[in-house]
Amino acid sequence: MARAPLVDGHGRRIGDLRVSVTDRCNFRCQYCMPAEGLPWLERDDVLSFEEIARLVRLFAELGVEAVRLTGGEPLVRRDFPALAAMLAAVPGLADLSLTTNGYLLERDAEALVAAGISRFNVSIDSLQRDRFFRMTRRDALPRVLAGLEALARFPEAHPIKVNAVALRGFTEDEVLPFARFAREHPYEVRFIEFMPLDADHAWTPEDVLTGEEVRAAIHAVYPLEPEPREPSATARVHRFADGKGRIGFINPVSEPFCDDCNRVRLTADGKLRTCLFSLGETDLRAPLRAGASDDDVETVIRDAVWRKELKHRVNDPGFVQPARSMSAIGG
Ligand code: SF4
After folding, report:
1. 311 lines ligand 1 (CB under 6 A)
2. Above pLDDT 70, what percent of the chain?
3. Residue 261 CB–ligand 1 contact under 6 Å
4. What fold characterizes domain 16-329?
5. pLDDT of 138-184, one tens digit each?
6. Ligand 1 neighbour 329 (Cβ under 6 A)
7. Which in 32, 139, 142, 166 has the greatest CB count within 10 A?
8. Confidence band, pLDDT 50/70/90 cuts, at residue 330
């Protein structure tokens, strides 16, 4: 059943839902969580597959066409491909995508593609084994690269994107290796500016290696040409002037893209976040479990989205970092 489109108080139509299916992760990335991990959600607090599917169906009826599945690390959730298949069958969804750290990709690639996931983002912050280990606290680079190769064998999985978080004092030595990686492999590499969503709340603006700095470093060696930006896109994509691939820059700190933001997020415990940096959340799990009708849940969603933030305030004096960290929001 089609419902009126979901529009926020600034006239932006919501078309993209990010769904965190778990807060758990098998990596311990320095810029995300402490070595010992975080207190995980209790199993009963996490939305069931049926609850996720019901909410995704409702959002699709409200005009959402794209759903991205995230975590923590989504592939650690048991039977995840079965959930993906349930969501791929939701009427009205044009695009089902996944963000993963790639550690379990070699095991799951075939099942994920068969389930109907059409786009893949694999997070890799270094192409050097020791540095990868230093960043993720896991000696896993060979396995992640093997997972990427396994996925690349499926034509329907392309274009595959490789996301690298850009950190000052770490990523500078990775920039040209990643540029060569994008030129020599069928992957689109994107650098993402480090955002204040770390569990340790240690982020400072000085830690941000800006997209422009990375772009300039690459352009000096491998000339780049910008491509037109898609509406509501997060990445500014460039192609190599000699035609050997593409590279993207996601610059939420230095070049915010909030004006035409069309995204909202659902956390693993059923909270609706209208912005990545929201300081408040709306509980959708409670009405679901209290037997609310779809119309009732729709009203709750509409009210929350109407109050969606115009933009983030990361660069504003007095910026307050959300209590919930990236691992519990899911990119
Ligand atoms: S920071 Fe918030 S408003 Fe800006 S693009 Fe991200 S989710 Fe949208």
Report:
1. yes
2. 100
3. yes
4. TIM Barrel (3.20.20)
5. 999 999 999 999 999 999 998 899 999 999 999 999 999 999 999 99
6. no
7. 166
8. confident
Arithmetic mean of pLDDT, 3-11: 97
- Residues belonging to the chain: 331
Average pLDDT over residues 274-295: 98
Which of 200, 202, 182 is CA-nearest to residue 191?
A: 182
pLDDT band at residue 243 using 50, 70 and 90 as cut-offs: confident
Q: Would the CB of 277 count as within 6 Å of ligand 1? A: yes
Tokens of 21: 């299916």
Q: What string of DSSP letters covers 122-185?
A: EE-S-SSHHHHHHHHSS--HHHHHHHHHHHHT-GGGPSEEEEEEEBTTTGGGGHHHHHHHHHHS
Task: Determine contact, residues 41/330, Cβ cutoff 8 Å.
Answer: no
Cα–Cα distance list, 199 to 25, 185, 193, 196, 215 (Å): 13, 33, 16, 9, 28
Residue 285 contacts by C-beta under 8 Å, 6 or more apart in sequence? 45, 47, 51, 269, 270, 271
Q: Which is it for the CA torsion 60, 324, 27, 252, positive or negative?
A: positive
CB 125 within 8 A of CB 174: yes
Q: What is the pTM of this model?
A: 0.96
Decide if pLDDT at 1 tops 90.
no
Domains of the chain, residue spans: 16-329
Structure tokens at 328: 């519990």
Ligand 1 atom, smallest distance to 264 CA: 7
* DSSP code, position 295: H
